[in-house]
Amino acid sequence: MMTRLSIPLGLLIAFGSSAIAEEKRVGERRAPAPTVSSDQLRGIFFDDLSEAIRGERPLLSTLRKSAEAMQSKAASKVASSDGEPTNDTWSRLISPVSLEDEVKRVRLHFDSIVTTPGAFNSGGYQDARLDLTVLATLFAIIHEHSADVRWKSDAPAARDLLARTAFNCKAGSTQVFNEAKLRKADLQDLVSGTGLNSRDAEPENVWTEIADRSPLMEYAERLIGSLEGNSRDAAAIAENVDAVRRDAELISALGEVLTKEGMDEADDDDYANLSRAMISESKQVVAAIERADFDGARSGVSLIRGRCDACHEQYR
C-alpha cells in the first residue's frame, strides 16, 4: 500500500525558486575587481589615524569647558539684545510686586496733588516734584530689572518724561502745572494698560539726570517712618507684613540708587558705607520676615533708622 506525502504548495514554490536562482548564479558573469596601487590612494586616505589630528588630543573636560563658555556667551548676547542687564542686582534688592505696588501708590498721591493751578502754585509743586522724582526712579529700576516687571516696555520713556517734569517742578507756575497735568494723563494711560503715545527715550539710565538726592532723601525718611509705624511690635509686623516687606525693599533699592556713579557724594567713602549698610540691613528685615522672625525684623528696622539719622547728620 502506497503512502501519499502532503507537501504545502508554498514550500514547493520556494524550493523551485531557490533552484532557479542558484542556476542563474552559476552562469552569471561579473567584472573583475579593479587593481589599485597604494600610490594612487596616497593623499586621499591617511596611512595612520594620528596623522589626521593636529596638536594634542582634546580632553573631555576641555570640551565641556568650551561648550559652557559658548553657552554663557550666547546668553550674554541674548540679554544684551533684549536691552536687559547681564546681572541681577535689582532682583536681589526689590521684587516686581513691590515696584508695581509703589508705582500705583505714588501715582494716586500725585493725582491728588495736580488739581487746580492755585493749589499747585501755592506749594503743591513741591509734593509733585517728590512724587515725580520717585516715579522716575522706579521706572529707571524697572528698565534695568532682570525680571518681567509690568510697564517695562514703556519704562524708559516714562522715566525721561517724569524726570524732566520733576526738574521743572522746582517752582510753581501755570506752565509747569499744565506739564504736570500731561504727566498725570500719561500715568493714567500706563496704569490702565493703554501705554504711552511715544516711546522715544535714552537707551540707558543716566542717574544724575533722573533723580536729585534731596527729594530721594525725603522719600527715604517717609519710608522709614512707615516702617516704624508698621513694626511697633511683632504683632504689628504680622498684621502689616506685606507693607513692611515693600518698604524695606524700597529702602534697599534707594540705597543702591544713591551710590550710582555721578550722584551727590557717591564717591565719598563714608557716605557709600552708610548707604551699603542701609541696603544690608533692609535685606535683613526682608529675610527675617520670610522666616517669620518678627522680632528680628523689628531690630532691623531700628538699625535702618540709626543709619538714616547718621546720614542726615553728615549729608543733606
Largest sheet: none
How many H/I helical runs? 14
Mean pLDDT: 83
Instruction: Assign an overall shape.
Output: elongated
Number of strands: 0
Low-confidence stretches: 68-87
Alpha carbon gyration radius: 37 Å
Number of self-contained structural domains: 2
Structural class: mainly alpha
Short characterization:
69% of the residues lie in helices and 0% in strands. The protein is built from 14 helices and no strands.
Structure report:
With 316 residues, the protein is mostly helical. The protein has two domains: 89-209; 212-314, Four Helix Bundle (Hemerythrin (Met), subunit A) (Up-down Bundle), CATH 1.20.120. Helix content is 69%, strand content 0%. It contains 14 helices and no strands. It has helices at residues 9-27, 38-41, 60-81, 89-93, 96-113, 117-144, 155-168, 174-192, 207-210, 213-229, 234-239, 241-258, 269-290, 294-314. Helix 6 (117-144) packs across helix 10 (213-229) and helix 12 (241-258) runs antiparallel to helix 13 (269-290). The chain is elongated and about 110 Å long.
